[in-house]
DNA-binding NarL/FixJ family response regulator (Streptomyces avidinii), 219 residues
Amino acid sequence: MTAEVIRVVIADDEPLIRAGIRMILTSAPDIEVVAEAANGREAVELARSHAPDVVLLDIQMPVMDGLTALGELRRAAAEVRALILTTFGEKENVLRALGEGGAGFLLKDSAPGELIGAVRAAAAGDAYLSPGATRHVVDQLASGKTAVRGEVARRQVAELSERERGVLALLGEGLSNADAGRRLHMSEATVKTYVSRILAKLDCENRVQAALLARDAGL
């Protein structure tokens, strides 16, 4: 990624959706849409030829769906960060996307500012998960919690400081860094630092794993 501009490829089979995303992203001075794809196969090919920083992948596409394309991208262009675009009815795919190395999940009805923020976060190497998607997935997974999982989670969380546990609890609620900061009277940058520290201490790869751990631990 260059210091000034984040290069983005948009992959969605609906031209109007692509046009809307392009309009939102190009309104940001630090984002450039370098190519558009109508299916997952095109997205992988364009990622190879244009070397973008971030690829936005719709899940439901012809020829190759977004999740399959994500796996191909990780093998063909591992340095490219991929954000998955989804609807509420598809959030069961979050775990597969994270397992394939996706940089995050964004709901299609997200606000324009959230879309821009997600692209910036992905380009910066951070995982981004829409708060709504996070809450839904964590609730689903936590419903299958066992006593053993709870005990293991409590032991892991015990290694955190009181402030870190407080931040982790808000991750379990699916709050963004900004919302957590307002709740805790901390700056967004400070929350981000805490989140990075928490992920490292708990050996979690992303916010969803940390959020699930928070639920398992009863925070």
